[in-house]
Design a protein that fits this description.
Layout: E1 6-10, E2 26-30, H1 32-43, E3 58-62, E4 70-72, H2 74-77, E5 80-81, E6 84-85, E7 98-105, E8 114-115, H3 117-126, E9 136-140, E10 158-159, H4 161-169, E11 174-177, H5 186-195, E12 215-218, E13 232-235, E14 246-248, E15 252-256
Parallel strand pairs: 7-9, 8-10, 9-11, 11-12
Antiparallel strand pairs: 1-15, 2-3, 4-12, 4-14, 5-6, 7-13, 13-15
Length: about 260
């Protein structure tokens, strides 16, 4: 298909010093003038030897692999998955990260709502779609609109463990959310556990990865710009970081221009 017949939608948040992530990046920007000074030291020159006394701009970033839009690898959830050593982000098959996109809109649910299997089935029925293996399923709650607000960490709907199991049983290997995390906001989990300590409360959807291998995309953005719930492709290749529990990604929805 020719390029002029395609439309691309950026589904990532920016790495930004001003974001309200719990673990924000720290970005230091080096100017072209500073690049000339650095280059002069490396090559035994004077800064003014470069045209206009300017060379390269460079940025230095301090961040975690879970800062910004990223893909969680099975190793993030536990040391083992399906009884074997859990795979890290550099060990996962590339074909998982390009496929048909399916968008499920949960903006009708309140912040903190926990999506159950029946909720997923209802949404799929409403859009008249049956999941197939390797679809990339994305949950929309518009939490990305809070990215620069203090309550971003707690501003999403979450997915239950049993609903996560069900998605994997449909052949889904990669699923994503525009929220900070795939589970419901952690303060809700923590209060529930404190009120009634028991297994299956804290990080339960993540821990599904102990039993069934899958990946999460977290901190998606602009899902409201996708005009239809399916009929488009998603590319979400993670950065290859040796032995890492996650990799940064710039997910893109690829649509026909007439969609």
């Amino acid at each position: 298909m020719s390029r002029d017949k395609l439309r691309f939608i950026d589904l990532s948040v920016p790495l930004d010093n001003d974001s309200k992530e719990p673990y924000p990046p720290s970005i230091t920007y080096e100017t072209h003038e500073e690049g000339a000074v650095a280059g002069a030291k490396i090559f035994g020159l004077e800064p003014n030897d470069f045209p206009d006394g300017k060379a390269w701009a460079v940025e230095t970033i301090n961040l975690t692999t879970h800062t910004g839009t990223h893909v969680d690898a099975p190793y993030h959830y536990a040391e083992t998955s399906e009884g074997k050593p859990a795979r890290t982000i550099d060990e996962l098959p590339l074909d998982w990260f390009f496929g048909d996109g399916v968008l499920l809109d949960f903006t009708d649910k309140p912040i903190g709502y926990e999506i159950k299997t029946e909720d997923l089935k209802q949404k799929l029925s409403e859009i008249n779609y049956t999941l197939k293996s390797y679809d990339i399923v994305m949950i929309r709650s518009d939490a990305d609109k809070y990215y620069y607000k203090e309550n971003y960490f707690n501003s999403h709907v979450g997915v239950s463990a049993e609903a996560t199991h069900w998605l994997i049983e449909q052949g889904i290997k990669v699923m994503g959310t525009d929220g900070w995390g795939w589970d419901i906001p952690f303060h809700i989990q923590a209060k529930d556990y404190s009120d009634n300590p028991r297994d299956g409360v804290l990080w339960s959807a993540h821990f599904v990865g102990k039993d069934k291998e899958y990946c999460q995309i977290e901190k998606l953005a602009n899902l409201d710009q996708i005009p239809k719930p399916y009929g488009f492709k998603v590319s979400v290749f993670p950065v290859k970081i040796k032995g890492a529990s996650a990799g940064w990604a710039r997910p893109v929805a690829i649509l026909n221009s007439d969609m």
